[in-house]
Each structure stands twice: as C-alpha cells, then as structure tokens.
Write a sequence for this structure.
C-alpha cells in the first residue's frame, strides 16, 4: 500500500471517517477486498455516492488506462468489507451496467467534476460498482 493511502486510512480510522487534505468534506469510505490471486486483504480509500441502501464507488484510477486493483479483486471476490464513518459493514459488490451506470456516473461527475475529467482522460468506460449490505 502506498504511504499516501496508508496515511489517509490512519486518519480516517482515527477520526471516525473524517479526513483532511484532498478528501476534506468528501464522502469517503474504506474498502477492504480480497486479492484476486493472493486472497490477501487490501484496503483502499475512495469516494462514494450514497443511493438508498447502497454505496456506489467508481473505478476511475484517476483516469488511467487500466482499472484499479481493487476493481479486479471485487470481480473475483465480490464479498468485501467497508468502513463508513465509524461503522463497519459487510457488503457484496455488483458492477452496474448500461443506463444505470451512465446515470450514476453522470451524477458523480456533476457533484465532483474531477470524475468527468477522469472519464475524458481515458478510452475505457469507468466502472461503477454498487456495494450492498450483506444479509446476515
């Protein structure tokens, strides 16, 4: 894990989900997924969009030509854990498609224009992943 992400994760956990810097005031969660090949847990901080009883996350990778590792992990192992504020939630990931994906991404780009810039920087369609609380 990069030292940048490690610092965000530590700050998030120390302050019940609140962080400063680039993410100050933004809706942020921590996603812990299992490695697609290794099976080892990995935690990534990311912005989300709340919609009903699900959290929507964006595999933007800052507009890079490839999807982030956490996206590949969720495709292989859709059961994950998120931390939102001071709550820890077991979730299942589902990749949205078509008009639903487009609607959600457009809303995120409206709220946070950087997401529109990320999409413009890449030829891939940036995936939107829905995280829903696991029944249990």
């Amino acid at each position: 894990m990069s030292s940048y992400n490690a610092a965000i994760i530590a700050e998030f956990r120390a302050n019940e989900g609140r962080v400063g810097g680039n993410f100050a005031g933004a809706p942020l969660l921590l996603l812990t997924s299992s490695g697609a090949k290794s099976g080892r847990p990995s935690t990534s901080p990311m912005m989300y969009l709340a919609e009903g009883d699900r959290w929507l996350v964006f595999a933007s990778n800052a507009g890079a030509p490839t999807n982030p590792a956490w996206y590949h992990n969720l495709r292989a192992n859709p059961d994950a854990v998120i931390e939102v504020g001071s709550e820890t939630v077991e979730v299942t990931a589902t990749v949205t498609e078509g008009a639903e994906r487009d609607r959600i991404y457009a809303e995120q780009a409206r709220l946070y224009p950087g997401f529109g810039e990320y999409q413009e920087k890449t030829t891939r369609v940036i995936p939107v992943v829905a995280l829903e609380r696991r029944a249990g």
